[in-house]
Amino acid sequence: MDVDLTSLTIAVLGGTGPQGRGLARRFAAAGLDVVLGSRDAARAADAAAALESGGRVRGTSNAEAAAAGDIVLVVVPWDGHAELLGSLRHELAGKVVVDCVNPLGFDKQGAYALPVEEGSATQQAAAILTESRVVGAFHNVSAVLLEDPSIESIDTDVLVLGDDREATDLVQALADVVPGMRGLFGGRLRNAHQVEAFTANLISVNRRYKAHAGVRVTDV
């Protein structure tokens, strides 16, 4: 897909958390303009200023970030997912919305996938944002690696899920701007559950081997 991503603004809702900050850092380093959103606009502004992005990242409220973004990433805690998206239906109408949320629980045995009535966080987003083009992606990327400025290449594949071919192609291209990262189509929205849930397995791998493992798909 031949798209000039440098003409687009990437918004990151929940952008003050590790995953949001890390993705913002990588997109800005690739020359894209990024808006961090947060419930606290001042906190988002502080997070943006700390990224040393050459002015390519700014911070504001989630609502203003949603309105400003051409592609909007949702990187918020699972327990606030539905409420936030429901409050931003108007701002997100007509836009490509990339759900990055993993519904996980934690106990003494480690991480585990939580049941979701709609099937997955991505499907929940699609059910709420009926006028948006919802895609699932960036579920299995290590926030630790994304945030570390000494790491130049993020060597992982990003599985992109969705029912809108143009939207999934666009998000694959977005993943491709990060050195080492590759966007791959991973199936329809109905297949998002296992990709989100697989993050629990990666957490177990990382704890056992003291690593920051990602996903690589062979023979593609």
What does the overall shape look like? globular
Q: How many structural domains in the coordinates? A: 1
Largest sheet: 6 strands, parallel
Task: Compute the number of helices.
Answer: 9
The top level CATH class name: Alpha Beta
Write down the secondary-structure element order: EHEHEHEHHEEEHEHEHEH
Q: Helicity range of the residues?
A: 25-40%
Q: Give the second-level CATH assignment, the architecture.
A: 3-Layer(aba) Sandwich
Radius of gyration: 16 Å
What features would you describe in this structure?
This protein is globular. With 220 residues, the chain is an alpha/beta fold. It is 37% helix and 22% strand. It has a single domain, classed as Rossmann fold. 46% of the residues are buried.
